[in-house]
């Protein structure tokens, strides 16, 4: 991998991580087009690790919210009287919502890094999950807001988030769809998706960095990985800011149509053997 490719992949990761279009799906497609074997351990680890840049951007962007929620959550753990605080309930909900994807990712790690890396899965997931997103976007009442989030809501959203382990589904697309079907407004589900990404993506990045350090060093290289992560951080910060403003005024329809179009094009390329599935 050269520096230009590292910058390109980092930019794509940063821009698409929090959009409901599947950052892993986009990276997998681009990595294949650049000539990489997409189920190579170094490439799969690289794809996960550079997400940490986007996560750090989210932490900085949401710092005021985090600085409010975390102390309230810790105070509520040790003082029952403070558990009625909406920030305590929100923090508890985020923690519970983050657990399912950690368990599923560890149980099915081999399948996620090999079988599900096929571009056929990416294409199918892009198209099929678009139907779920369209239904959720249409059916949502949006009558509930951030203060209404409960552990039950977050657990359901967290369970649906596990679908994002299939490249092409999109972690944000999964969580946003589930949140809308729980009748939350678009800004709340988008923000909750950001919060849920922090433990899930940061944990996965650290685990991959530890387990695949040798493959990274011998493959894409740590210099390129760190460059891509830094670029991801910068681009993601602006992407998060734009997305929150966008969803406050628009539906998710533009993302749904884009997903379908990309999935159809990818299926065409695979059907006519323009690119190989792995």
UniProtKB/TrEMBL annotation:
InterPro entries per record: UppP
Membrane association type: Multi-pass membrane protein
Transmembrane segments: 42-63, 90-107, 119-136, 192-210, 222-244, 256-275
Enzyme nomenclature, EC number: 3.6.1.27
Keywords (A to Z) from UniProt: Antibiotic resistance, Cell membrane, Cell shape, Cell wall biogenesis/degradation, Hydrolase, Membrane, Peptidoglycan synthesis, Transmembrane, Transmembrane helix
Superkingdom as given in the UniProt entry: Bacteria
EC class name: hydrolase
Subcellular location: Cell membrane
GO MF annotation terms: undecaprenyl-diphosphatase activity
Catalytic reaction equation(s): di-trans,octa-cis-undecaprenyl diphosphate + H2O = di-trans,octa-cis-undecaprenyl phosphate + phosphate + H(+)
Family to which the UniProt record says this protein belongs: Belongs to the UppP family.
Function: Catalyzes the dephosphorylation of undecaprenyl diphosphate (UPP). Confers resistance to bacitracin.
Miscellaneous information on this protein: Bacitracin is thought to be involved in the inhibition of peptidoglycan synthesis by sequestering undecaprenyl diphosphate, thereby reducing the pool of lipid carrier available.
Protein name stated in the entry: Undecaprenyl-diphosphatase
Gene field: uppP
């Amino acid at each position: 991998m050269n520096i230009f490719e590292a910058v390109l992949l980092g930019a794509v990761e940063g821009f698409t991580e929090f959009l409901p279009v599947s950052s892993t799906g986009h990276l997998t497609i681009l990595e294949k087009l650049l000539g990489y074997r997409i189920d190579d351990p170094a490439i799969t680890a690289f794809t996960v690790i550079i997400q940490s840049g986007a996560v750090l951007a989210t932490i900085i962007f949401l710092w005021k919210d985090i600085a409010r929620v975390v102390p309230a959550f810790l105070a509520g753990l040790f003082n029952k009287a403070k558990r009625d605080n909406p920030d305590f309930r929100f923090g508890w909900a985020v923690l519970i919502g983050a657990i399912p994807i950690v368990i599923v990712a560890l149980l099915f790690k081999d399948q996620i890094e090999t079988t599900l890396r096929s571009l056929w899965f990416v294409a199918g997931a892009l198209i099929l999950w678009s139907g779920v997103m369209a239904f959720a976007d249409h059916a949502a009442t949006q009558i509930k807001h951030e203060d209404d989030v409960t552990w039950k809501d977050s657990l359901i959203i967290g369970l649906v988030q596990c679908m994002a382990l299939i490249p092409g589904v999109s972690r944000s697309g999964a969580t946003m769809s589930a949140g809308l079907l729980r009748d939350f407004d678009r800004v709340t589900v988008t923000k909750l998706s950001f919060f849920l990404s922090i433990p899930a993506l940061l944990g996965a990045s650290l685990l991959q960095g530890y387990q695949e350090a040798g493959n990274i060093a011998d493959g894409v290289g740590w210099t390129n990985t760190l460059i891509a992560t830094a670029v991801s951080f910068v681009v993601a910060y602006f992407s998060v800011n734009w997305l929150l403003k966008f969803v406050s005024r628009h539906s998710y329809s533009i993302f749904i149509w884009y997903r379908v179009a990309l999935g159809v094009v990818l299926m065409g390329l695979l059907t006519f053997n323009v690119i190989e599935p792995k």
